[in-house]
Design brief:
9 strands; TIM Barrel; 7-stranded parallel sheet; alpha/beta; 10 helices; binds (6S)-5,6,7,8-tetrahydrofolate; globular; 47% helix
Amino acid sequence: MKTILTGRTKEVIIDTAGPVIIIGESINPTRRKKLVTTLQEGNFEYVLELAESQIKAGADILDVNVGFPGVDDVKLLPETVKVLQDNFDVPLCLDSPNPKAIEAALKVATGKYLINSANGEERSLNALLPVAKEFGAAIIGLCMDDDGITHDPEKRVAIAGKIIERALKAGINAEDVIIDPLAMAVSADPQACLVTLETIRLVHQKLGHNITQGASNISFGLPDRESLNAAFMALSIYNGLTCPIANPEKITAAIRAADLVLGRDDFAVRFVEYFQSRQ
Ligand code: THG
C-alpha cells in the first residue's frame, strides 16, 4: 500500500514495503523553550532553522506542532505552515489536538498534507474525517478510543480497523489512513514497548496499512535516549513501521542501517550517501 503526500512540487511516497520515510519531530515546543519564546514574538527564524537542519539530516516530511499554553493555534498553525511552505518543499504533518487549527492550516496548504491526528473516539472521528475528506488530506489514526488506552495489542488493532472503516465510509481512500500504534515511555511501564511492537506487527499483517509513531516518546525520563530510541526503531521497522516521527539528526543513521539490513538498499547506496553527507 502506498500513501502519497505532496509539498508544493515534491512528492513523497510512503510504501508499506519500505524504505522508511522520516517525519521530523523537532518543530514541537516540548522542552524547546526557544520555540515558544520566538513564536510568541511572531519570529519564525528558529522554526525555519529547525526545518532546514532536519531536512539536511534526512527528514522527508516535517511535523508541525505549535501547541503551548495560551497559544491561539487556529491563528498560529496556519501562519507557521505558510512560512514553512514558502521556504521548503516537503509535505507537512499538522500536529494539533484542535480540529479547528488543523482545518485552518489545511485552508492555506499548498500540498497534500497529513493530519496528526484522529483517534477512535466518536468526537475525534466526527470532527476530523469530514475535514480530511474536504481537503483531500491523509490522516493518522491513533489506536485509542472512548475507553482510553488498552494494553492489549489485539484491541489496539481492532480500534485501528474501526478507524479505517469509518474513514472509508467518510469517502477517504484506505491508503490515506496511517495507523499509530501508540508508543509510550518504557520508564513508566516495562511492557510498553512490547505492546507497541506487537501492535505494529499485527497492523502490518492484518490491515496492511502504513504505520507511524512518535518514536522518541519511549525514552522520556531515561539517560542515553539515543541508544534506546535506535534499538526500538530497528525493532519497530522490522515489524512494519514505515514513517516514524523522530529526530532525524539523531536517528537517520540507524534508520538507513535498518533499511540496509532488511534488503531495501541495494549496494548500500543510501547508507553510504548518508554517511558521506554527514562527514
Ligand atoms: N504520535 C503522533 N504524533 C506525535 C506523537 C505520537 N506528536 C508528538 C510526539 N508524539 C512526537 N514528537 C516528539 C517531539 C519531541 C520529542 C519527543 C516526541 C522529544 N524532544 C526532546 C526532549 O523532550 O527532550 C527535545 C529535543 C531533542 O533532544 O531532540 O523527546 O506519539 N501521531
